[in-house]
Amino acid sequence: MRPVRIVIGLALVAVTACGQPVVPAGGGGPVDVAELVGSWSVSGTGIEDAVLVLDSHRFEVRAGRDVRYGGWRADSSGLFVAHVSAAGGEPPPDLSTPPWLEAATAVTRAGSDLVLLDAAGEPTARLSPRPGPPPPPGGPAGHVGPAAPLPPGVEPVERSRLLGRWEITDRARAARAPEPPHADLAAAGSWTGSDGCNGGAGRWVSGPGGVLLATCGPMTLRGCDGMVGVPGWLARSARAGFDGATLVLFDVDGRELGRLVRP
């Protein structure tokens, strides 16, 4: 990929990456997430000569001199989410996620092509394979699934119950941080949050069985007392459920990442 220009509004010393959507079924058929890795011509968006390149960790989307980069995640049920966090090309760079990519919450197959779908099941873009370099070794890091089931006694989340602000359960620790470690999930599919010292943001999507996928853009690396890696929990989550009123996040292997409660 081309060199990346990271653009952040504040002076920083370091950065690091950190209605229910429709899950495709029948019709176009399921997609092996490993098949997403590669180079794709994008059509059906009203933008000419757009190209999407998905590698094992990140993506690049370009149209003419406009080049943007970010993170993506997908799972074996067909859920998909992506978020631009950096830009290259001619200044001033545009850090917005293209509407067709921002709206995508699922992916399905249409012959040799792939189709990105929005939360209502409507196509946002068609992806046609194009010649490109071979995928990097190691498989797609954005791939999640099949995720381990939720443990007994944990109720799968529903999207409506995820919306809003969630904070860590340790109130005393949260009080020591400049701001409580938290995540705030918006209905439009974006989220913002903090580990107590550094802000994070990205996009999220949920599905049946408590599936929860989220991306996380670059974060500063300040340290402070009371910090807890809530943005990282979201970025590694594969399922989420409720233990009573407590939201519990799990990784793809079923390991508990963390617990959150309403403020």
Helix count from the secondary structure assignment: 4
N-to-C span:
42 Å
Percent of residues in helices comes to under 10%
Question: Helix-strand pattern, N to C?
Answer: EEEEEEHEEEEEHEHEEEEEHEEE
Q: How much strand content do the residues show?
A: 35-45%
Spatial shape: globular
Low-pLDDT windows of residues: 1-17, 19-27
Number of strands: 20
Largest sheet: 9 strands, mixed
User: Over all CA atoms, what is the radius of gyration?
Assistant: 18 Å
Helix/strand/pairing class, anyone? mainly beta
Please, what is the average pLDDT? 86
Can you tell me about this structure?
The relative contact order is 0.18. Residues 1-17 and 19-27 have low confidence and may be disordered. The protein has 263 residues and is mainly β. Strand 5 and strand 6 (80-89) form a beta hairpin. The strands form 3 sheets. Strands 2, 3, 4, 5, 6, 7, 8, 9 and 10 form a 9-stranded mixed β-sheet that branches. Strands 11-18-19-20-12-13-14-15-16 form a 9-stranded antiparallel β-sheet. Strands 1-17 form a two-stranded antiparallel sheet. The chain has helices at residues 99-102, 159-162, 171-176, 230-236, and strands at residues 15-17, 38-43, 50-54, 58-63, 66-75, 80-89, 106-110, 113-117, 123-129, 143-144, 155-156, 164-168, 182-185, 190-194, 199-207, 211-214, 218-220, 239-243, 246-250, 256-261.
